[in-house]
Design goal:
It is a single chain. By secondary structure, the chain is α+β, with helices and mostly antiparallel strands. It has 2 domains: 12-67; 74-170, no CATH class. Helices cover 47% and strands 21% of the residues. It has helices spanning 14-37, 43-67, 119-123, 128-141, 156-170; strands spanning 7-10, 74-77, 80-83, 91-94, 98-106, 109-116, 145-148. A 4-stranded antiparallel sheet has the order 1-2-3-4, covered by helices on one side. The protein has a 3-stranded antiparallel sheet with strand order 5-6-7, with helices on both faces.
Amino acid sequence: MPAPPERFAIPWSTKKLTGLVVMSAMLVVVGVLMSVVVADAPTVVRGLGVLCIAFFGTCGAYAVAKLFDRSPAVILDREGIIDNSSAGAVGRIRWDEISDLRVSTIGTQRFLTIDVVDVRRFAGRGGVVRRLLNAGNVRLVGSAINIPTLTLAVSMDELFRQVEIFYAAYGRRRG
């Protein structure tokens, strides 16, 4: 494996974020149609419409904010990984805290899953929403740290390759 640089920053993909904003806006419109425009819609449909507006409106607002965020989504350096890739991001993960790297799939989305020595320490980071997201991640894939490439300017294969290079150079040796 090649020697890693001192620091490797992975930026946000403006193309992917813009697509997320457009998709979120379209789904908010669907929610409005379900909850407001269709006069004789059943209460369940109206409720789903409100949930659609709230969820996809939040997703769209997050994507718009990230379009203007100039800080990298993920940073790899000698000390570890700085994860800022999602609403459930846990921040700094030191190489010596990592026990394994793997790719997980939830639905159709692939994630770089980082197994750590102390899962509870990372699952308990952040505010209430972040802790709930991290607890859900632990239940779904066994780790609080899952980096999606949905909005990153690299593929899953490239992200995994770069993290492996840094982990081999600066982290605990696996195997």
